Amino acid sequence: MNGVLVIDKPAGMTSHDVVNRVRRILGQSSVGHLGTLDPLATGVLPLVVGNWTRLAQFYTKSEKAYEGVIRLGFATDTYDAEGERIGKIVELKVTLEELQECAKNFAGTIEQLPPPFSAKKIAGTPAYKLARKKKDVVLQPVKVEIKELEITGLHNDRVSFRALVGSGTYMRSVAHDLGQQLGCGGHLELLRRTSVAEFDLSVANTLEQAELLARSENYDELFVHPRKLLPHIPSVTANEETIAKICYGRSVNLPELSNARLVKVFGGQRELIAIATRVAGTRFHPGIVLASRSNSAALVST
Q1: CATH number of the domain bearing residue 164
Q2: Are residues 129 and 174 in the same domain?
């Protein structure tokens, strides 16, 4: 079983918890995710299944969209609502307009300090393991890109926002740093991821919905249509002879796409055979083969 599905992750579960649940639902051990979500967060969690776990390399720098709530007045050690409060509660004295002005400081490429409770490694040890033991966590700032940070509302000490960010950006750090700049402290109270790359909530299923679809073998509804994957890479539908060569790792001629660097090769409408790289002219080499040799003939006949 190969495919990509999107789960609307519930709060309280780790991304690995969701992966394990989907493994059981599908009876498939080869399942991975395309970008972790904290337990507190909900929303878009794309999963790759079977041979299609090889597609993960194309999503390492995917942009992500979020909406959420920052609570001002105090910081926490985890930078979110699951952590312990640091210091006293500070009375909030800020307007919506002041918040929106402050948010401009986070626009573009900035240096961001990851949260101490994060998977960033220090001498080979994840930072969160050291933080849980109350050991010093010394992390280095990293460059991240915040393409949009829009403050959409202020209700008492709660700040609602929308954000579009590059890979590696911690929204917990954004919340913490916003509180620091305002001088009142702050932490992330709610976070919902609304998209990752081309995947958004419109193609997401809850775990319960995914289980029902899998039980009824309604895989067309469960999995994202392969033609919608990696939309920036052009597609070509190959004939039986070409597919057979690709499945054996041999280079092929694809004259339809002489100017493309990468191409998605299909057999029929839904069968993604490979991602091929242009060698020279119209010659392409299958860098990533997603179909097995034994299934190559069946792929063409469907």
Answers
A1: 3.30.2350.10
A2: yes
| Residue 94 backbone class (left: φ over 0; alpha: ψ -120 to 50; beta: rest) | beta
* Tens-level pLDDT at each residue, the chain (302 residues): 899 999 999 999 999 999 999 999 999 999 999 989 999 999 999 999 999 999 999 999 999 999 999 999 999 999 999 999 998 999 888 999 999 999 999 999 999 988 877 676 666 776 667 667 676 676 778 899 999 999 999 999 999 999 999 999 999 999 999 999 999 999 999 999 999 999 999 999 999 999 999 999 999 999 999 999 999 999 999 999 999 999 999 999 988 766 789 999 999 888 999 999 999 888 899 999 998 655 544 444 44
Q: Which domain holds residue 103?
A: 65-190
- In the 8-state DSSP scheme, what is residue 80? B
Residue 61 in contact with residue 165, Cβ under 8 Å? no
Task: Say which of 8, 17, 38, 177 is annotated catalytic.
Answer: 38
Element (H, E) at 253: strand 252-253
Q: How far is CA 151 from CA 69, 79, 106, 163, 166, in A?
A: 10, 18, 12, 9, 18
**How many domains, the chain?**
3
165 and 237 within one domain: no
Number of C-beta neighbours around residue 181 at 10 A: 13
Q: Is 100 helix (H, G, I), strand (E, B) or coil?
A: helix
Check if 220 is active-site: no
Q: Enumerate the H helices of 155-218 as residue ranges.
A: 171-182, 207-215
